[in-house]
């Protein structure tokens, strides 16, 4: 070991290797979040652990993803409200239905 190379604790990786691993973990996480955002299917999300701070070169990508997620959440909220309005209208129509006697259709005509 040269005098310029700091000693590492047993089992630890050099700082640049740790940074590369953290960067790769963030890229993988952002890839998965972007895939989930663009998918029509509902996915179950589990918060990733041990990522640490977002690497500087991924901050822009993470910010754009966050903005897209907020837009999607707003769209979903709008759709949820619209669906509730439709359900309310259908319930109101159903409440006005009065039971009537039998109705026959003359199919011979």
UniProtKB/TrEMBL annotation:
It comes from the Bacteria. Residues 1-21 are annotated as: Disordered. This is Flagellar protein FliT. It comes from Curtobacterium citri. The lineage of its organism: Bacteria, Bacillati, Actinomycetota, Actinomycetes, Micrococcales.
């Amino acid at each position: 070991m040269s005098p310029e190379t700091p000693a590492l604790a047993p089992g630890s990786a050099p700082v640049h290797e740790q940074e590369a691993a953290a960067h790769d973990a963030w890229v993988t996480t952002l890839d998965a979040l972007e895939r989930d955002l663009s998918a029509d299917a509902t996915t179950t999300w589990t918060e990733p652990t041990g990522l640490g701070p977002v690497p500087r070169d991924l901050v822009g990508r993470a910010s754009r993803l966050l903005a897209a997620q907020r837009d999607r959440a707003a769209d979903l909220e709008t759709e949820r409200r619209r669906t509730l309005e439709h359900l309310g209208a259908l319930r109101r129509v159903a409440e006005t239905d009065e039971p009537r006697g039998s109705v026959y259709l003359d199919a011979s005509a």
